[in-house]
Amino acid sequence: MLEEEYQPRRVLPRHLRPEPVPEAPFSYEIRTAVAADLPAVRDVYNLYVANSTVTFDTKQKSLHEWRAVFSRSERLELPFLVAVSPAGTLLGYAHVVPWGNRAINRTVVETSIYLGPASTGKGLGKALLAALLDACQQAGVRQVIAIIGDQGADASIRLHASFGFKEIGRMGRVGFKFDRWLGTVTMQKNLKKLKRR
């Protein structure tokens, strides 16, 4: 090593240091998804498939599969929401499917909320869940179910509990991913029927 590498580095006095550039405020708009959002929805979801136990899926979903999910949501008039930045970048999404994937009763649904990697820890999940529950109520949904992977899911469980979801069950060792067994926590929320005027 060179001798100067052992010397303490000189530091500029505080008054000569450049001011740090403030980070732009985190802002977004939550709106109903459109077909053009689906490639970005796919990319967000597939990140979780490849890197997380939040979903037990091990095979990434194709754009064709996402189009089928979106088409079904539209046909059943169930909410499919996206959060986008002012520049139009998709930051996350939230949607529901009929419970147990049965279209026979669209008033009992299962939630799905995913955030892009730069959007976590900023309150976006809370905002998406609030908007999703409101949209579900407007659509006449009566029961909302959340099935949460139990590995590192404390924040998600707390989030759902803060919206009035109650834990109704746990199942252990029902998924196998990344060489380990995983369980689920099931939570449920009753939505009050809106009074029509």
Task: Give a verbal description of the structure.
- With 197 residues, this protein is of the alpha+beta class.
- The protein has a single domain, classed as 3-Layer(aba) Sandwich (Aminopeptidase), CATH 3.40.630.30.
- It contains four helices and seven strands, in the order βααβββαβαββ.
- Strands 1-2-3-4-5-7-6 form a seven-stranded mixed beta sheet, with helices on both faces.
- The longest helix has 15 residues, at 124-138.
- The termini are far apart.
- The relative contact order is 0.13.
Describe the protein's topology.
Elements: E1 29-32, H1 38-51, H2 63-76, E2 80-84, E3 90-98, E4 108-115, H3 124-138, E5 143-149, H4 154-162, E6 166-177, E7 180-190
Parallel strand pairs: 4-5
Antiparallel strand pairs: 1-2, 2-3, 3-4, 5-7, 6-7
Helix pairs in contact: 1-2
Strand fraction: 25-35%
What is the radius of gyration?
A: 21 Å
Distance between the termini: 80 Å
Q: How many DSSP helices?
A: 4
Count structural domains.
Answer: 1
CATH superfamily: Gcn5-related N-acetyltransferase (GNAT)
Features:
197 residues, alpha+beta, Aminopeptidase, 4 helices, globular
Compact summary:
26% of the residues lie in helices and 28% in strands. It is α+β, with helices and mostly antiparallel strands and 197 residues long.
